[in-house]
Amino acid sequence: MSRSSQELESLALGPVPILNHFLGRLRLEEIFRRGLSGRERRRKLDSARALGVFVRNMLVSRQPLYALPEWAAGFVPEALGLRRGEGAHLNDDRVGRCLDQLFDSDRAALLTSFVLRMVEEFDLRLDVLHNDSTTVPFTGTYRRKGRAGSLRILHGHSKDHRPDLKQLLFEMTVTEDGAVPVLVGLHDGNVTDDRTHLGTWKTLRPIVGRPDFIYVADSKLCVTDTMSYIDGQKGRFVTVLPATRREEKWFKTWIQTHVVPWEEVFRRPPLRRRKDPPDVFRGFESPLPSAEGYRILWYHSSIKHTIDQQARQTRIERAVAELEFLVHRLGVRFLKTVPQVRKAAWKILEEMKAERWIDIAVDEGERVDFRQAGPGRPGKNTEYRKISRPKPKLTWRLKQDVIDQDAKTDGLFPLITNIRAATLQQVLAWYKYQPRLEKRFEQLKTVVGVRPVFLKNVERVEGYLLLHYMAMAVEALIERELRASMRKAHIPELPLYWEKRLCKAPTAERVHELFAPIRRHRLLEGDRELNRFHDRLSPLQRKILGLLGVSVADYAK
User: Fold this and answer.
1) pLDDT, tens digit, 9 for 90 and up, residues 480-496
2) CB atoms within 10 A of CB 348
3) Which of 6, 142, 269, 482 is most buried, most CB within 10 Å of its CB?
4) In DSSP terms, which residues pair with 503 in a beta bridge?
5) Poorest-confidence range of 417-421, 451-455, 505-509?
């Protein structure tokens, strides 16, 4: 056979061997095979491996479902868990049917198996758990009701600020040990957060194995029935006291006439410019507990103090500018009567949210014009007549007493907890971990790419979102393992950014980008393999593999 008949096959490995290491530790394919419903006798590609390929695709490429076959064709099939020739059966219809199987299976049991395996294999600490939710918007037409037990994609309170779109509520609970997601909850689009916390806590209790874990959530947890149930079951919680509670209003009135003995509980350097002052947190326990008898802890942040002050001043300045512009338009159409002007002025204050600090007054006024009494060109002897017309008069003043009162409460935020022995520092530290959960939601919508959802079947959408949760868990475990190994090896930074810039807290996305160019090459002559070789790993790539516990041999198969 001539040399011209030889062919070089180059297929991507990328970060897939790293993903396989973690998926293997999680035994994901085994969990799928044990938990999925339906028979597999006639399947040329079993559902467990098809869903495994889909999870890898979510982590690496973020391609829509219909582009999955083309994506998989560019990778080493063995790395994706596929046997020879099985890639031809990997299409959007096949994966869609796998999602149907996932919906028909006992999803609660399947997810419980996944979570318990993750907790056991990676020794996750479940002492403190953080909960929050986001919304996943959908475009197009979705039927209001699907099969029995399916979710409903409906209009609701959009956390993406898209009230025009229907949505689903995506709830997630993460550990304080690396912000690893250990529970996901999917709810109808019109469900509010205050209706989800009780069910979530009940689900977490058997996973943790005891009730006394600390449950941290936003202000929607501050519902009497929910807090009383958790407290009655010997559970512990930390949440934000809503501004609508009477205790919040009482303290802000009490602080006007009392000197608060603030205690410094935390100090951190400036987040942006080095010349900025540090952010100092001070704490104080309210002299009165909540109506349910729980502790209310008040905190003052120096940065929040500046932000609140600037926000109030900005609203006042914008409102005054709009009112001044309104004065020049008085007397024109729709601004000729006192009720019309009063309505327009109040609309400005409401839009700027400045009605608390500005008081307006609209009175009957008069507009005087002089017109020539007779015809002809005007001269020095021309007579003029006076014409009076009604013209409202708008005035305003700043409520300086209210501004001074609000200035005393700038930078304040209250937390409520039933943990009697916790110090001000401990409660603040638990609450300040919540932004790590927000980072997971950012990864859900950017790195993992949950949007847009190219599926019209509601049941398949539910299975699709469950797989996204599993992909996020793998991302979190990679970051947790890498950062823990760096601390153990006393490695403060790694050059993972462009131009070899150092990174203190590597993310899974940076790891994926570092290994994306790695490929496997085979020199073929017909069906016979003449030679096989791989791209050489750099010293940094070998170091990352060592920190993650992945064998270099996985990149030489």
Assistant:
1) 999 999 999 999 999 99
2) 21
3) 482
4) 494
5) 451-455
Examine residue 20 and state whether it is found in any structural domain, yes or no: yes
Task: Work out how many domains the chain is built from and give that number.
Answer: 2
pLDDT of residue 368: 65
Together in a domain, 285 and 397: yes
Residues 345 and 399 in one domain: yes
Same domain, 253 and 321: yes
Q: Determine the average pLDDT of the residues in 198-216.
A: 95
101 SS3 class:
helix
Taking 80 as the threshold, does the pLDDT of residue 44 lie above it?
no
Q: Region 122-147: what's the mean pLDDT?
A: 86
Confidence tier at 138 by pLDDT (50, 70, 90): confident
DSSP states of 245-272 as a string?
SHHHHHHHHHTTSS----EEEEEE--SS
Q: Is residue 125 part of a domain?
A: no
What is the C-alpha to C-alpha distance for residues 532 and 520, in angstroms, rounded to an integer?
8
Per-residue DSSP letters for 10-52?
A: EEE-TTHHHHHHHHHHHTHHHHHHHH--S--TT-SS-HHHHHH
Q: Crossing angle, helix 28-35 and helix 47-60, to 10 degrees?
A: 140
* 111 Cβ neighbours under 8 A, 6+ residues apart: 183, 184, 466, 469
Residue 428: which of 198, 234, 268, 277 has the closest Cα? Answer: 268
Q: Are residues 406 and 551 in the same domain?
A: no
Mean pLDDT score across all residues of the chain: 89
**pLDDT value, residue 548:** 95
Q: 492 preceded by cis ω (within 30°)?
A: no
* Same domain as 364, residue 281: yes
**2 Cβ contact list (under 8 Å, min separation 6):** none
Range of the domain at 56: 9-107+461-492+528-555
Domain match, 533 and 398 both: no
pLDDT of 214 reads 97
52 backbone dihedrals φ, ψ, rounded to 5°: -60, -40
45 assigned to some structural domain = yes
pLDDT of 244 > 70? The answer is: yes
Residue 224's contacts (CB-CB under 8 Å, 6 or more residues apart) are 291, 292
- Answer with the one of 417, 449, 474 that is the final residue of a domain: 417
In a domain, 50, yes or no: yes
Residues 391 and 474 in one domain: no
pTM over 0.85: yes
**Same domain for 537 and 407:** no
Bridge partners (DSSP) of residue 11 are 520
CB 341 within 8 A of CB 394: yes
What pLDDT is stored for residue 38 in this prediction? 59
